[in-house]
Design a protein that fits this description.
Shape: globular
Radius of gyration: 16 Å
Low-confidence stretches: none
Number of strands: 0
Structural class: mainly alpha
Number of domains: 1
CATH superfamily: Glycerol uptake facilitator protein
Largest sheet: none
Amino acid sequence: MHKYLVEFLGTFFLVLTIGVAGVLGTAGAAAPLAIGAALMIMIYAGAVLSGAHYNPAVTLAIRLRGRVSAGDVAPYIGAQLLAAVLAAALIKGVFAPAVPAVPLKAFTFPSPSAAALSEFLFSFALVHVILHVGTSKRLEGNEFYGLAIALTVVAGSFTVGSLSLASFNPAVSMALLVLGVLPAGEAWAHFVPQLLAAVLAALTFAVLNPDDP
């Protein structure tokens, strides 16, 4: 039960930071750094207890990697999605009214196909990095895993944030839907590429590391 609570807490604070610093803009141009910092500290806080996934796509990939039990998949993803929805409700009900200059409104993708490709590429990069720094035998026991994972998100946020909202995470995308920022009609440009990227990253890891089942 503790690991599910850790997944809830880590996802909650990640989504809260994304919503307040990024969507409401309290961190300005430094929002990706705030988001990366929140992710990093939550990873280091929770890794020993739950693996610190905080992302359904990551849970899927780590399940394909065989490093999380089948029985944990649904509770992990359930905790992540619940945390995302509750964080979004808190942002919408408490924080957004305190920042009236930045109304919550649907994001207009410059190009839905570019958004989908952005989500696919950086979701792949994120899961690829997580599988290597977090599960690889070669890097077992390293202490930089949290920094590497967080910097991947920071890089992706700076690079494609204006194209796709830089979610790379179905739980974050769920929160953006609740906030009304991610248009429901274009939600496919988040969820589909994120999950496909997770599967491809897991397969790529298996190809690159045949001696590390």
